[in-house]
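Hello again, I could really use a second opinion on something today. I've dropped the whole record in just underneath, so have a look.
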Amino acid sequence: MGDNVDNDDIKRLIPIVNKLQDAFATMGSTPIDLPQIAVVGGQSSGKSSVLENIVGKSFLPRGSGIVTRRPLVLQLYNSTEEYGEFLHHPNKKWYDFEEICQEIERDTDRVCGSNKNLKNQPINLRVYSPDVLNLTLIDLPGATKVAVGDQPKDIGKQIRNMIMSYASKPNCLILAVTAANTDLANSDAIEIAKEVDPQGKRTLGVLTKLDLMDRGTDARGIFTGEDSNLPALALGYVGVVNRSQADINERKGIASAREGENQYFSMHPAYSDIQDKLGTAYLVKKCSQMLLKHIQSVLPQLSSDLNKVIAQKEKEMADMGEIANPKRSRADITQAILKFSDRFCRSIDGKLDPDGPSLTRELTGGARIEGIFHDVFAPAIGDIDILEQLGADEVQTLIRNVSGLGGSLFIPNSAFVALVTQNIQRLEDPSLQCVQLAYSEVLNIVSMISHNMPQVDKYPALKSTIVEAANQILRENYEPCNTLTSTMVSMERNRVNMAHPDFIGHRDNFGEFTQQVEEEAAAGPPPPPAKTLQRTIVKEGHANKKGGNAIVLWQKRYLIMKKDGTLNYYRHMGDPEPAGVIYVPGCVVERADAMVGKRCSFQIYHPAGNIGKTFFFQLQNEQEANEWVQCLKEECAKEPEVEDDEEAADNNLLPGISPPAADEDFDQIPTTRQRGLTDRIHAAIHENLGMREKVECEILFRLLISYFEIVKKNVSDMIPKAISYLLIDKLKVKLTSYLINELDSEAKIKQLSAVAPEVAEKRVKLKKTLVLLDDSMQILTDLSHTSF
């Protein structure tokens, strides 16, 4: 399409886009990116004068500071009659442009207040005049960087955000207004245009105040493209001469100003031969052509985008269903129940639901419950150590006690069974906690689904009934699930299966196993671990610890606070490697007696972490607790000391390498060697016992570890199965029938189908929006069948 545009095309096309703008303004939002021209410039760039020259009337408020505090959507229509109309006063014609100016001020104060606040809610003004071409411009506040007078301190940022909300849209053309008598390289308008339109494809530069440039200078090179100091714009630059402040004060008419502008360009030696490409008249024509081309190029995409918005709104309307229709109440409630039950089952089974929450942001549904089983329950079971409080002396005493008078030739079975059954009972508490966590999580899933389903969320009574029904079904099965959980642990405790194929005491494995133990016992203890230099230790001592998981047990640990900033906790005093490490600098330490329900307790956590990574410790008495708290507070507040190479090697920390973060827990399952026979126990056996006793203790320790690992695997596997069957599957099966049985009377149906007031209001608004969108779609459809 050439520069010559048929004015009939402009008359037909631009008003159609104006209708879409009015429709979206009525909706209170713009669901698609409409073609428009945003006028951008600094506060003293002459932007307002350009707009008044285009309209041919003085109608914009003037004054010091911020005058334009809301976007002004200015729609120009070529007409034989001259008047203005505001969208917020649709049935009133304004013939006096002084009154239009006053109404702009009044409506700005009504929305923004009488102070200097800004609002992005636009004022829509139509101007009908025989002196204008069909055109739509958006006047935005003048950019500024420094607050003046009583302006808000962040006024520059507020204005910039408003400008960017328009200028950054791909379908927005930019009219970048800059005063020619200023440093053009630092123009606010050009800077913004370069940021959002780096290639200059949708920016038209406008230079004002050409008549105020220094004597002997001109802007000809900018208009002809010979000057490379300003960014190249595909749409070029247009120069205009506006009324001066003296002209405005003397109320010089726009028509006289236009004549003066034409005379200036025709008489100026630098502009006389290009005056047909300068001036307000040419700027208006250029803008009309520019907008028309842009509308035609984006028309197919507008139709596609609007269709998507309509489909989305229609789905929202369909999800809400009919309101205030008693004949459909039972059907609507039944359908909502069935959809909820289906959504719940799909969520538990991990089937993708396009209408559900995002599947990439966080775990949902069944994945959250599986997280409890796999990431919380299983590690809690695995962390229980059968040898945690067991030494060689205790084992030998037990062997002698169960051997009775006369002793025995071999290790009595009763010694092994007594120790195993005693420790299996320790698995019951975390198993019952797992049931409680799963119960709470299933209820949370039910609540989340009911909140995210419009078909259910619009009925408050139905929503409450669904949550209560789920709670009731879960409560009915909670005690049976607890009972089954305890029974499973009791079953493991009641029969010790020494014929299990994975048990190292099985008859097929026992001979080779005992021979290996005898050889190791004869070889003597392993070499002692490398000593820890005492000067690297700040404080040490015994304490009970829990933390790092949702299922937590108090465990006896040996603490060593080192000068490198790490709090190391060991399973046993003398162990070569810590069970976990907490990096103390930057952490918070405080007493926690009330929180954990135990005296002499404190907690340590990192402020950026979460409660799952808070560690609790309990000491024997108040003095010890206070001493540890005081010590750790001092260590939290200072930088760790860098150890020399020897100390670093002893502590498994290299100089310059940061220890683990405070929110990391390394309390992992040790290797079989670490769990089966710690160096402490091994040394104690070889130091205090004879050869036979050494072999007996070592065999028993390894048998205990082997069998207890089998039991823990069984419990870790069977408890989640019991929970899945008795809590989750029962709820999936019973929930639908339970809820359908609630619809036993018309009164109950009426109660459940009562719609929340905010939902009814939203539906009315949505219905109006759909009407406006359908009208807009019809406009674009008619337009697509029109040739230009």
